[in-house]
Amino acid sequence: MQVYMLQDVEKVGIAGQVIKVSDGYALNYLIPKKLAMKVSTANAAVFREKVKKQAVEKQVLSSKVAMMAERIKSLHLTTKERIHDNGKLYGAISADKIVTLIKEKGFNISKKQVSFDKSIKSVGEHKVTIKLSSKLQPQLTIKVIQKK
Questions:
Q1: In this structure, which long-range contacts are made by residues 120-128, counting pairs with CB atoms below 8 Å and at least 24 apart in sequence?
Q2: Reduced to 3 states, what is the DSSP secondary structure of residue 121?
């Protein structure tokens, strides 16, 4: 049976595709869960509308993410930490700490999106990468200074 994919299903197909699956899989899983709909002339118009709407939503989302990336690139975060006599931090700066600092600036990201080249354990300026998407990965600067 051929179906229009309405949502992404791992290892089956992505939204907007026409795929061929077994009748049982389509009738018992994909269609009842509204993940797909059967290919027919009546459904063709509905499907085209959904594809157009998803394309517009995807474009709006990508432009919002691009704007967010530009704003993140210009961020310079500063944190005050306790330091040993030799200039090393008592503990490394974690992804949670960076997420908290970024949230203070008005951005919502998860700690899974934060990436370092190496852990931050010393005073100074360090580059941190924020993974917004596979293509958009802006870098921001975090400055670690001594807490007095």
A1: 120/89, 120/92, 120/93, 120/144, 121/88, 121/89, 121/92, 121/93, 122/87, 122/88, 122/89, 123/83, 123/87, 123/89, 126/93, 128/98
A2: strand
Stated pTM of the model: 0.60
Of 70, 59, 60, nearest in space to 130 by CA: 70
pLDDT given at position 27: 94
pLDDT tens-digit series, residues 9-43: 888 988 888 899 999 999 999 999 999 989 888 77
Domains observed in the chain: 2-67 (3.40.5.10), 70-146 (3.10.430.100)
